Amino acid sequence: MCERWFCEKHLEPRLAFIRDIKAVENSPEVRTLYYTEWKRQDGHPDFAYSQIKLLELDIEEKNRSELIRQALDRMNHYYDSALLPEKPVDVEADRKKRVKTLLKEESELEEGHGTTSKTAKEEAKQTTLTHEKSPKRKPFPIKKIVAVLMGITILSILLWYGLPIIFLMMQNSPSQNPSPQSSYTTLTLVKSSSPSPPQITTVTFGDVDYSFSYVWQNNQYFLLVSNSILEGKTYLQPTNGSVYGDIGIEIKVSEAYSNQIVLLVKPTVQDYLASLSFKKLTIAQGQYQAVSFSGNEYTIGYLQNPPYYVNDLIVTTPLLQSRQYSITSSQIVSCDLGLEIRVYKATTTYAIIFVKPSY
User: Fold this and answer.
1) CA 301 to CA 283: how far, in whole Å?
2) Which of 10, 176, 198, 317 could disulfide-link 321, Cβ–Cβ 3.0 to 4.6 Å?
């Protein structure tokens, strides 16, 4: 080092700084300038040069702030005008105003330079034509966009919180969760008194017919129940809420009055015939049907034999043994060929019987 400030190496000026001034810490621009100049090995500290550089920074900062303010003002003015209702534009008045402004500028130029500015005239004419041809600018539909976004948001919230409630209501609806009584069959029986015949109501579960009647005899109410396998039960004086289970069905007394009774009935055995080992046969007059038990096949026919044309069952075993039985409705036949036969109906055209092995 020459240790002189104005030698050939240190002739150029550089910033003069005091290291602990607040401007270095508070202003990024000043801090950058300081560290740039501080590392320089050439030049000499010059306060006049420093004042000029700092003034330039200040002017640059003011210009930048002014540009930012102008940009914000234009943006605010744009959105304010977009939110305001659209005002009708007087095209003719705007054209005349622009032409008048251009002519005034032309006259000022003539006064200043003494010549006519053709450029001003052409610009006025071009501006007039462009303004007349340019389409009307529509404002940006901010309100509509905001309304659509709010509607989508509300709909999304309703769907998000509403769908679980809707599914829960559907699961708890009567169609999804039927009441316990939906599996019952409702029967209404009217009381009949002796000597009138009882009024019988019949309902079928599977292949078994059940008969119900409500009678008044000897100063007592009777509920008579039987089925087509000739199994029956008599319930004396049924009361409200009483429940009975027998012969493959469940009977619940819903209402009991002196003149009628309302019952809820359902089967309690999935296959009542299978639980009793019976097979149901419907045999037309003059025909035969085969039935098998444990590999043994039996043939049963239904005939009317002269001279009295009595309804007869003809039973034939695998060993060709044959028996003939005269039958009537509601009859139990103990066949000595290893079968038990229960006759539900015996008419002139067909017979309904239930058959099971007796071994």
Assistant:
1) 7
2) 317
Q: Compute how many other C-beta atoms are within 10 angstroms of the C-beta atom of residue 342.
A: 20
Residues 237, 209, single domain; the answer is: yes
Residue 86 domain flag: no
What residue numbers bound the domain in which 312 lies? 277-357
User: What single letter denotes the amino acid at residue 94?
Assistant: D
Residue 354, number of CB atoms within 10 A of its CB: 22
Query: Rounded distance, CA 283 to CA 7, Å?
Result: 141
214 strand-pairing partners: 223
Half-sphere exposure of 138 (CA within 13 A, CB side): 3
269 within some domain: yes
What is the C-alpha to C-alpha distance for residues 334 and 358, in angstroms, rounded to an integer? Answer: 9
* Nearest CA among 245, 238, 129 for reference residue 189: 238
Taking each helix axis as running N to C, give the angle between helix 91-113 and helix 118-133, from 0 to 180 degrees, rounded to the nearest 10.
170
Helix (H) or strand (E) holding 232: strand 232-236
Could you tell me the two tokens for 13? 């000026």
Counting the structural domains of the chain, the total is: 3
The pairs formed by 269-272 with CB atoms below 8 angstroms and a separation of 24 or more are 271/206, 272/205, 272/206, 272/208, 272/248
DSSP codes joined into one string, 259-292: SEEEEEEEESSTTHHHHHT-EEEEEETTEEEEEE
Checking if the pLDDT of 134 tops 70, the result is no
**What digits encode the pLDDT tens for the residues 294-332?**
888 999 999 987 666 688 999 998 888 899 999 999 999
The pLDDT score that the predictor gives to residue 1 is 46
Task: Report pLDDT for 234.
Answer: 83
Q: 202: closest CA among 189, 192, 216?
A: 189
